[in-house]
Amino acid sequence: MSKKKFVVRQKYDATAERYDDRYVTIQQRKYREVFSKFNIEKAEIILDIGAGTGLLLDSFPHLTNTIFCCDFSMNMLKMGKEKHKNGYFICADSEKLPFREVVADIVTCFSVLQNIPNPEIALTEFHSVLKNNETLILTALQKTFSEDMLKKLTQKCGFEIKRIWSLTYEDSVVIAVKREKN
Ligand SMILES: C[S@@+](CC[C@H](N)C(=O)[O-])C[C@H]1O[C@@H](n2cnc3c(N)ncnc32)[C@H](O)[C@@H]1O
Predict the structure, then answer these.
(1) For the chain, which residues make up each domain, given as ranges?
(2) How far apart are the CA of 182 and the centre of ligand 1, in A?
């Protein structure tokens, strides 16, 4: 594991118990804005990458069998598992996902990209686990990823942009669809 990843994981492991208190309001605001424009209710398998303590699942508790929370911080995952005893919490690095190809109907990744040393590798992973023509929802801190950077990165990794905009707080968001690479 690279030094950057190690440090990021240590930070989240060390602060996991306080994460929800600090960020629940901010993250829920992001989910509300995004999911007012996109309906995830009909998907069978949603991979939430960098899911942390499962705040996304908190917002959709009836989707416990649908949302698979993936994160590389065990302590973040443990916090999530305490809230959702029947939830799926999977320890996984976003750059090397432990799934067979084309398994997901939707991949979500909220506020993680700025932590990832090589976002292109991660997006290539997201592309390989998504079914064709299905949707990636990706947000990243605006101060690290402008809309233009997000656009170029997603297109380069084989996605077609459907919508891209800046949320009212912190993040840029892109909703994109997987296309077959040439
Ligand atoms: C700002 S939190 C966002 C958590 C969650 N998506 C949310 O909306 O609350 C970033 C999360 O990404 C995870 N993360 C960072 N880099 C990762 C990587 N390379 N692989 C998997 N998870 C990663 C961290 O452990 C942390 O839980």
Answers:
(1) 3-178
(2) 31
What sign does the CA torsion over 123, 108, 46, 56 have?
Answer: positive
Show the low-confidence residues of the chain (pLDDT under 50).
none
Ligand 1 centroid from CA 112, angstroms: 5
Q: Cβ(19) to ligand 1 under 6 A?
A: no
Cα–Cα distance measured from residue 158 to residue 109, given in angstroms and rounded to the nearest whole number: 16
pTM: 0.97
Name every residue whose Cβ is closer than 8 Å to that of residue 163 and which is 6 or more positions away in sequence: 37, 173, 174, 175
Query: 6, 110, 118, 8: which is closest to 50 by C-alpha?
Result: 110
CATH number of 3-178: 3.40.50.150
